[in-house]
Amino acid sequence: MRKTTATPADVSRRVVGVPAQPGRMESVSLAEGALPAPGPTASHPGPDADPAPQASAPGAAPMAHAEGPGAEADPQSVIAGAGPVGRSGERPTVRLRDAGPDEQPRYAPEWLELREPADAAARSMELLDPLRIRLANLPGRSGLAIHDLGCGTGSMGRWLAPRLDGAQHWVLHDRDPYLLHFAAVASPRAAADGSRVTVETRRGDVARLTPDALLGASLVTASALLDVLTREEVETLAAACAGAGCPALLTLSVAGRVELSAPDPLDDEIAAAFNDHQRRGGLLGPDAVSVACEAFADQGATVKVHPSAWQLGPENVGLTAQWLRGWVGAAVEERPELAERAEPYLAARLAACAAGELRATVHHSDLLALARPTGGAG
Ligand SMILES: C[S@@+](CC[C@H](N)C(=O)[O-])C[C@H]1O[C@@H](n2cnc3c(N)ncnc32)[C@H](O)[C@@H]1O
Predict the structure, then answer these.
(1) Is the pLDDT of residue 60 over 70?
(2) In which band, very low, low, confident or very high, does the pLDDT at 58 lie, cut at 50, 70 and 90?
(3) pLDDT the model gives residue 86
(4) DSSP state of 28
(5) Mind listing the pLDDT tens digit for each residue in 307-337?
(6) 369 pLDDT above the threshold of 80
(7) What phi and psi, each to the nearest 5 degrees, are found at residue 360?
(8) Average pLDDT, the chain
(9) H/E segment holding residue 252
(10) Which of 355, 365, 354, 352 is nearest to 263 (CA)?
């Protein structure tokens, strides 16, 4: 769902017939990318630490108007991040920048924007109270320093900053300077009690974070990140948090389970193939939360986990359709022999979605790890 790949199998680019309205068939591509023109990336210098541009409006700036994401992506193709997309460079108009053979998966701001309301509704509120208590008891606290790892366009900050009291400085980490630009422009400005929120961006690989990089951190947070890391990377992250003595709130890791209204015999096969696709290259996919629990517990942290499922219905048609295309597209890329049955399956699911008749529960988990405080934070 969230993982893209640079080398999709041809089968995921097939064109399938989907009834857009009863009695009418329409061609729908499973996986051609549809990204905006480069825009900010072209002029973004991409330094390791960028001062964030400051918006004047108080509170969280709405993401859609930051310069670009908007809703211009072709709704009949898979947006990068929702599922497998075409090889970078196949279509010059959707190319974000020169792609080398080692290019990492990219996430289109459209995809992150599309999922932001469902993410916000899904994140567990139950983990916030124990977090607030821990933050209130930090020694020598004069404001919170919060590191958001794999921040994308910054949705975690827009969700969490207005739910915590006190002045906050957010350090937004991502390897993608294009997304960092959007995160900085649409960053939150005010805490729950009206205190000031400031941000800076840091471009880099969060999988190599050291305790030094988290010096003075009050909190490490992330959303939809753990499942695209490896076991070793999660262990490195847990060790860095333990070294810095700071808690970690890691939300929206995929759990590998999906429920769709009007269950279909193919549901389980698609889910299993999708989960295997997520595990490609040693990434954790649906194993992320159990591995993270072990890694943080091994560092002496107390770990709490809470469900945070997307509950998708008629009000989420755009997200559900993209998610379906990505989910089925990845499954078919993983197991091409599914293609023949997956095409009518996807067509029927999309038709039900367009008619407002499909409900989907996409299970995720949130994790709060309370490290032993070192006494130096704050
Ligand atoms: C699924 S997106 C989630 C973005 C954002 N947290 C949200 O919830 O909308 C994953 C993000 O993590 C970033 N990312 C993945 N692996 C990374 C790594 N090793 N180092 C830095 N950023 C990474 C991607 O660029 C992307 O922005």
Answers:
(1) no
(2) very low
(3) 58
(4) E
(5) 999 999 999 999 999 999 999 999 999 999 9
(6) yes
(7) -135, 135
(8) 80
(9) strand 248-260
(10) 352
From the CA of 225, how far away is ligand 1's center (Å)?
Answer: 6
Which of 313, 114, 145, 298 minimizes the C-alpha distance to 221? Answer: 145
pTM of the prediction? 0.81
| Residue 270 pLDDT greater than 90, yes or no | yes
Q: How many residues appear in the chain? A: 378
Q: What is the pLDDT of residues 101-139, one digit of tens each?
A: 456 778 999 999 999 999 999 999 999 999 999 999 887
Nearest CA among 68, 51, 5, 67 for reference residue 228: 5
Give residue ranges with CB within 6 A of ligand 1: 2, 81, 107, 112, 119, 150-152, 155-156, 174-176, 179, 205-207, 223-225, 228
Nearest ligand 1 atom to alpha carbon 81:
1
Q: Which range scores top for mean pLDDT: 27-41, 71-85, 193-207?
A: 193-207
What is the C-alpha separation between 271 and 284, in angstroms, rounded? 15
Q: How far apart are CA 79 and CA 64, in angstroms?
A: 16
28 is written with which tokens? 């729908």
Q: Count Cβ atoms below 10 Å from residue 79 Cβ, excluding itself.
A: 27
Q: Which atom of ligand 1 is nearest to the CA of 111?
A: 9
The CA 308 to ligand 1 mean position distance, Å, reads: 18
Write out 111-157 in H/E/C secondary structure.
HHHHHHHHHHHHCCCCCHHHHHHHHHCCCCCCCEEEEEECCCCCHHH
Q: Can you tell me the distance from the alpha carbon of 331 to that of 352, in angstroms, rounded to the nearest whole number? A: 20
Distance 269 CA to ligand 1 centre (A): 27
Ligand 1: which atom is nearest the Cα of residue 208?
Answer: 19
